[in-house]
Design a protein that fits this description.
Elements (H helix, E strand, L loop, with lengths): L1 H29 L1 E5 L14 E5 L25 E5 L7 E9 L3 E5 L2 E4 L2 E2 L24 E2 L4 E5 L9 H4 L2 E2 L3 E10 L5 E2 L2
Antiparallel strand pairs: 1-2, 2-11, 3-4, 3-11, 4-9, 5-6, 5-8, 6-7, 9-10, 11-12
């Protein structure tokens, strides 16, 4: 009798733990994932060591172990802080700001970003930053056209960011999600814009 009660409790605990693990894996795979900022490429938006939540569902989460994606809730917007698989090192995930879409021409001139010959302005939080001409895809006087099925992204800390200016373009299939919330450290907790 006591032995049966102990077995019953162990089974209940095991079932609860298995259900919790399955739910955590589903949430991580399709909805939200936590990331740690490893470098200063996005200062002042993120500091080294900030921990963020990324909404994977918004752009259409990829079904694990396949190349199939769920339908997107929203298309990426210029200025979104995106997380993506590095085009150079597929084992790493990067965080940068989305600047241009397929078919658009990007040029960095006098520290400003021009899309199709027009300077970026408005609510995109890159206006007060100076962008340096670096790498093969960000040379002064050499506009770069974003190829079909790709994005162009830059770090907010232009002097210390290895981004599309160096390695080129982000294939759409590499997109993981949009950064939505800084949850650690507590004094920097906020919604990301």
């Amino acid at each position: 009798m006591i032995r049966d009660k102990i077995r019953s409790e162990i089974r209940e605990w095991a079932e609860s733990i298995i259900i919790a693990l399955i739910l955590a894996l589903i949430i991580r795979a399709f909805f939200v994932q936590a990331f740690k900022i490893p470098s200063g490429s996005m200062i002042p938006t993120f500091e080294i060591g900030d921990r963020i939540f990324v909404n994977k569902l918004v752009y259409g989460a990829r079904i694990p172990f396949t190349n199939v994606r769920l339908p997107a809730l929203k298309a990426p917007q210029r200025g979104d802080v995106i997380i993506f698989v590095s085009p150079e090192t597929p084992t790493k995930d990067f965080v940068k700001r989305l600047i241009a879409f397929e078919g658009e021409t990007v040029e960095i001139k006098d520290g400003n970003i021009y899309i199709n010959g027009r300077a970026l302005n408005g609510s995109i939080p890159i206006q007060s930053k100076y962008y340096y001409n670096q790498g093969n895809y960000g040379k002064e006087g050499e506009p770069t056209t974003v190829p079909k099925g790709s994005y162009y992204a830059l770090g907010d800390n232009s002097a210390n960011s290895r981004d599309s200016r160096y390695w080129g373009f982000i294939p759409k299939k590499n997109l993981i999600g949009r950064a939505v919330f800084v949850y650690w450290p507590l004094q920097r907790m906020r919604i990301i814009k």
